[in-house]
Every structure is written in C-alpha cells, then in structure tokens.
Amino acid sequence: MSNNKTASVLVAIGRLSPFVLISSMLFIFAGVFYYLTGFPLYWKDRVIVDFMGWGGLCCLIACLLKRNDSMQARSLFMYAVLLYLAIGVGIAESAATALFIVSSLWYGRGLLSLIFRNNSVNFGATRPILIGIALQLAFFGALIHFPFNYRGLYLAVLLAPVIILFLSRRIVESWNRLVKEVDTRTDAVMRIPYWYFVLMVILIGWTARFAFFPTIGYDDNAQHLRMWTQLTFRHIYSFDAITQIWEVAPFAVSILHSIVSLVAGVDSRGALNLVLLALLFRQIWAIITRFSLEHSDRLLVVLLFASTPMVGNLLVSLQTELFLALLVTSGARLVLESHEGFYSSNALVVMAVAAMCCAAKLPGALLGSLLVTTFSIKAYCLHKESKLPFFFGSRLAVFLFFCLLVFVAFNSYLAAWLATGNPLFPLYNGIFKSSYFGAYNFSDTRWVRGFNFKSYWEVFFKTSEHYESEDFVAGFQYLFLLPVALIAMLRRAPRLNTLSLLVPLLGFGIVMFSITQYWRYVFPVFPLATAVIGGLFVWASDRKRRLVRGAIMACIALNFYFYPGISWLFNAAPQSAYTESGRQTLTEKFAPAKAVTTQLNERISEGRVLYPGESPFGATLRGDPIYVNWYSPAHSAHMAAMKRDEDVASFLKDERVGFVIWNMRSLSKPEDPKWLLREYLSHAGLPEFQVGNYVVYRVIGHDLSYRKVFNLEDVLQMNPLEVGGTSLEHRKEAYVTKGVLAGPTPHVLARLQLGGASIARYHVNFSCREASGYFIAQVNWNIGTPYYRRVPCGEGMVSFTESVPVPAGATNAEIYATVGDTTEALVSKLTLETN
User: pTM of the prediction?
Assistant: First the structure.
C-alpha cells in the first residue's frame, strides 16, 4: 500500500515537472538579486580581454578548418585545442603525464589479461588505466620508504611496458587498436552541429586553461609539494610529523604528482590535473551515454559540469577532490555497466577504485565502501556468478593483486601509526592521543554552520561562508535541477541503475555535508550529480526537453558569470601563465614566499629555514622548513616561550636555524615573540635578499658592524629648523621633551648618500599621542622599492629596529616620518646605519 502511495506521489510530481523547472529557475534568479549587495562583477578587465581573445582565436581557427576540410574540421579543431593546452602546461610535463597514463593502461591490460586468459572481453581503456594506476601506487608507494627514488628508475618503470610491446613486435598492433578506438570516439563528434561543437569546446577549453597557473596555493606550498621535493633531492620521504602534521595524512595524490613530476623534472601539477579532468569528462560522457541522449545534449551536460567554478579552482591546486571525483565517477560507471557476478573484471576494478579512494583521503574510505556495497548488491541481484579459472596462475595473480590493494589503501595509515601512534593523525587525536598533536579531535569550526536546508540554500548565495571564495560560485545546477532529476530518476529509471548512481551520490554527499558544511569536500560526487541532471533529457517527454535544455543553459550562464569569484588567483588572465616567465611573474606577485624558496634553493642545498607563521611556503625547499604555526605544535610552542633576546638566540640554536624568512607586513607588539625575533635579526642576522615584502636573513649569531649615515639627535643639536618634521622648540605640549613630531602628512627628515652600501639598519624610538594607530618607518631609495613599515603604537615609548637589503644600484635615500590612524607621534630617536 505504501509503495502505491509513493508511486502516486512521484507520478504527481512528474506531471508538475514543467512548473517545477520554471519555478526553480525563477527562484534562483530571485535569490541572486535578493542576496546581491551592489552588482558584483568578478571578471577583471584583463580576464574579459583574455576570454574574448581566446574565443576569437578559436573562432578563427574553426573558420579556417571548416573552409579547408569540412569533414575532419571538428576533430582537427579539438586536437588543436588539446595541443594548445599541452604546450600551456609544459611539453615535458604533458609528455610525462601521458607516459604515466599509457604505462598504467598497459600494466592494467597485462594484469587483466593474466587473470582472465580465457576471456575474450574487450577491457576498453578505463578499466586497465584504473588497475594500472593502482599498481603504480602500490609500487611507488612502497618505494618512497627507501632511498631509491631516482628519476632514471621512475622513467624505466613507466617505459617498461612500452619497451616490452616494442620487443614483442606488438607495438604496431597496439597502435592500430588505439587509433581505432580514437576513431570510434571521434565518430560521435561528427554528429554534433559544427558551430555548436566549437562553442562548447571554447567554453570547456576556457575552464581547462586555468591549469596553466603555477602551483601557488597555501596548502600546496605548505605540504602537498613536499613529497616530490624530498624524492627529488633526498630520494626518500621523511614522514616528518613534527615539522608538518599533515605529512603523514593520506598521500595517494602526492604520489601521483611525484611520479610525473620526477619524470618531467619539474612540477607537473597542471598537466596531471588536465589529464584527470579529461578522464573525468570521459566518465560523465559514458554514464549519460547509457541514457541515450543526443550527442549535442551529452556535450551540454559535460559543459554543465565544467561550468562549476570549483572545477577551475581544483585545477590550480593539488587538493584530493579532483582525483576522488574521477575515482567515484569511474566506479559508479562500472557498477552501472556491470552485468556479471563477483568474479569479473568490473569487480576487480571496483575494488581497486575503493582502495585508491581510501588512499587519497579519509572520507574516501566512505566512498570506496559505498561503491563496493553498491556493486555487491547489484551482483547479488543479478544472480550471475563467474567461476574462477581452474589454473593456478590466475588465482595467485588475484590473491597478490588483493594484497597490493590492501597495501595501497592502508599505506599512509600504517605510516602515520608508526610515526605518531595515531593511524588517522592528526584527526581523532582525542581518541589516539598522539604526543605530536593536542589530545582533541581536530575540526575546522569556521565551516560548521549546521546541517539543515538553510545551510544548503546559503551555499549557493553566501558561498563565502562555506568556502574561501566570493558568493554565488557553488554551481546553481545543484540547487534545484538536482532534486528534480532525482525525483524523475526514482520515478522512471530502472531500480538497479538508480541504485548504482544514487547510493554513492546521496550516501557520500549527505554524510559529508552533515559533518562540515565546507563545499569543496562534497565535490567528489558533483560529476554523478551532473550525470543525474543529464537524465532529465530522457525522463522528460519530448516537449519538455527544450525546457530542460533552457534550464541547463541558464545555470551554465550564471555559473560562468560568477566563475572568477571562486579564487583570488582568477583575477589574472590564464594566458598570462602560458609561459614559464609568465608563471614566474605570477608567483612573485601572488606568492612571493614561494619565490623566496626558489631563490633559496639556488643558493643552498641544505640547511634549516624558519618560515613566517602566516606564510609556511616551504614545501619545495631543498633543506628543512621550520613552521611556527599550528602545522607544527612543537616548534610553535618553542617560539612562543621566547621572552628575551637570549631566548631568541637559544631558540635558533636549538632548532639549528640557518636562515629566517621575515614578512615585513607582519604586525606585532613589543611583547610578541615575532617582535623579539626581528630585533634579534637586526643585529645578529645578515639580510641576504628580498622578494616583495619578504626578507631572507642568514643567522650569523653575533653582532654585525654598521656605519651611521644619519642620526636625528645630531641633526637636532646642530639646527632644529633643518629637520623636515615639526621641531619641539615650536611646540609646548607637556608630554614631549625632545625630538620631532610626525603627523599624517609625510615629511622628509633627511636626504643622504649611501656610499655603496648593500644593507641598512633602521632604528626609531617614538611615542604616539594615542595607543592606537601606527608610525610609518619609510626610506625611499633612488632605485627600487622603498622601505615601508607600519609599526604599531603602544603605551609609552616604542623602540623598533630592522635591517634590510639596499636595492642594487641605490646610491641615495630619503628618510620620512609619518603616522597613520593617529594624530601624531613623538620621534625622539631615529638612525640609519649601513654596511
């Protein structure tokens, strides 16, 4: 009885679907205008020009191809875009990533052929690639524990299957098979209207171009790039949870990145992410192909996913969600296509996918479990059992493969347990109580907003409360189109197909969003959600498909309008990162701390470097980075205990610090340890070089001699009227005795010659009329960026000293005295010394 009622409700809802779709889009637009404050345009002028240039160039190429070869124009246009993207992320990087995928393909085919010798089934490309990736994660995941990680070895492992094919004279046969498969795939393209196809590729390609950007994200440079750096220079991974608590977190993605980067010889994040995205597009296409959509509508659904701003954001980083999305989408596709029992190629691949999900991230264990559970239920319901082959070799291969999968799944957790005593370190340390972290269960409370409809609604309109971004960038198709598609699927789709998609989609999505309302964490099931939305074309009648198509296009338009708001990096044009020099310029502009690390690597091969707590960008350092924030509780506590100058010297000696990176924009009070560190470096540190607002000091441990080139006291004694500020002889305030009053208007205190100096030390004693505000320490060189520091006011006299490099070629300087956010400050002492 209840089933009949449920069916009746679903049918009634289905009849209302046109009204629901129209109402949904109206609600979205109404919500956007309701939550708008002003009229935000996240597209900077340079990004608009870049988009127009990209579209114009593509249209020009498309016109030329259409005119010269109308039959192959689509394929040639697509290949031209792919070549452009490959060059943009780097030739070596693209070649290394392609070699990794080809190697995975043939390793996977080799294993599947070994196990299923008597089976003539065509394994395709997806199954062998996933099996091959799992095999390589097992091999290289074991290798990182030993000092044998050399480029030559990695290259040999990737080239081995290609060499074997060449020696066995099967390379021509394999090439012909590959060409045939590619031709089969491109046949589908021929059925899409030409200019419609060009427009779709232009938009998808614009999203893919964000992979050009350098790897300058916070998490990447604090930890994700560390494995590749250590394997490159030390040839073994340290699992150093003292320096960085996340070093023992699940590291499958770091292994993948290390493989291709070690082979290429440079950071290959962009190429790796592009290939992962291309494989993900292929899985979405394969799933919606089973819905029998028209080819143009399939491409529209792929564009719908590509228009999700989070896609572009994941392309510029090494976060795990993109790889997890590929795994869960591939796994769901295999479950959807499976018509065999438990002993089948699909079963092995699903197990491999589950193991890699677990190896990528702790929540991935849930994804893997859901996929295995879904496959098991479907296999049981089909009542089809394939028996094991009778010969011994296949059984042994299956057993060894499952052993490797267990190792892949639990490698990082075992390493964490051995290194810290907590297999999930630093998570759930309230249970395991490792001494390397506080005895509490870590949770980022910034993103805990409550598991309710209000939180889900506000994700789309107040995205900044659920992710580090602007508002309206969550992907509007998931607000209303997804629920409508879910209802339609429950009403019309076969039960087992519904199970294959909805269990991982809803199981992971609901659980993950209930734990923390952080939008990126839910991304792994976005492709499945998009595929389900694509099902609306099938489950809707012919007259409703235009409405579905219009709703999808409206969501795509909204997504692209707000797209650049997903990341501060998208204020720059993708084309500006097309060359290595362009990427270097962006790095110095947006992540000067990483540029500092690059220059340090050119000067030193070993050594320990202390990083600012707010800029722990030491993952690519050849030496050992030292962090003094929550990433390293031990180092942070050691620094926090500093109270005197002697404590600073002791801290640097105990930690064996050779260099200190200092952020000149860092504001601190005299009692702050950072204040003490700067004061110590002003007399016992040698400023080596400066990038942006970051200065690198070599710790020399003894006082460095300086020559005074300006002393305010001497000038006042000679002639107070020559001082640019207000002489106290012309003021009769009770709280001043001797010095110069600095106000909001800049005044030049002195102009002087530097005499070929390479470093300068600035010292000032001042007291503000109020405790709020700041004194501006400023020296303008005749060449280079001025020295400019905001020194916070305090109660009574403030003494501030800092040494900095003098820009190369600077011969003259002007000293200023100014205040900000306060009326005035008494400068009783000001000196400039050089060396």
Answer: 0.93
